[in-house]
Design brief:
alpha+beta; Nucleoside Triphosphate Pyrophosphohydrolase; 4-stranded mixed beta sheet; 3-stranded antiparallel beta sheet; 2 helices; globular
Length: 142
Amino acid sequence: MTEVAVGILIRPTDGAFLLTSRPAGKPYAGYWEFPGGKLEAGESVLGALKRELQEEIGIQVEGASLWRQELFDYPHAVVSLNFCKVMHWLGDIEMREKQEFSWSQLPVVMTPVLPGTFPVLEWLAQERGFMGETVFATTKSN
């Protein structure tokens, strides 16, 4: 099983959350997800989150907390996703792996969405009292 730290960056001005596209050469390339990456040996979830967000999107995490965990069985791997809310960071978003990014609200308009992202969108909808589809164009079957 692969342990992954995932950052749910929430923009303080309007509550928008950051989605990034998966880079070319990785499974599900082009799919939209929350940024993050694999834990290295002996690394904590928050340690991995800080390292991955620095490497991937060029920010320094100043305040984050573990929010939810979900086990997801992708065709290429079983992944334990550790979702962390990130409310404070330093630096400007910089896509260091040639991916795209978007500050999003519900319903999300970027497609396709990575399957493991759908539960997070549902949790955000519950927290925000949002009713309806969390993704504008249904991509759950892709």
